[in-house]
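We include this case.
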Amino acid sequence: MTTTRGDAQTTPTGRAAQRVGRVKAAIDSASGLRRGMNLWPPFLFTGIHIDEISEDFRLVRVRLRRTRLTTNYVGTAFGGSLFAMTDPFWMIMMLRNLGPGYVVWDKAGEIEFAAPGRSAVTAEFRLDPQEVAQVKAAADAGEKVLRWFAVDVVGTDGAVVARVRKQLYVRRAPEHARA
């Protein structure tokens, strides 16, 4: 059960319930989400482009164009852009695969720079259905789940430019927790 306090919904424990924005929630297809996110200013104006989101939300391909605005002082890929291009995807993929009744947040992130990015770069996210099942089972058992996911950012020559890891926090939403 949730109650409304002002513009925020809260659970019986007083915590704010996780919400997805109205516009984002209305986009229920992978292709619609891809188009919408490609027009989202933090991606549109930074050279980040989503090339593909599979209909089952288990595969995402993202590209960062190389332009004067996406390079750093020495002319290689700006580290902030490399991290930004990978930011929301593990969380969105897990949230869409778990379905309603779960809270999913990014908990931590880290990036290791492996080589200078001298070209456009891409990242390909693949979410294993078995991993989703493990996370779901643990959350359904009442656990707070912390799980790391990794993706390589790769240049056009195939060289790894950066390795990015994100830690997700997953649990059952309080109003869906099993008694």
In short: The mean pLDDT is 87. Residues 129-140 form the longest helix (12 residues). The CA atoms of residues 138 and 165 lie 21 Å apart.
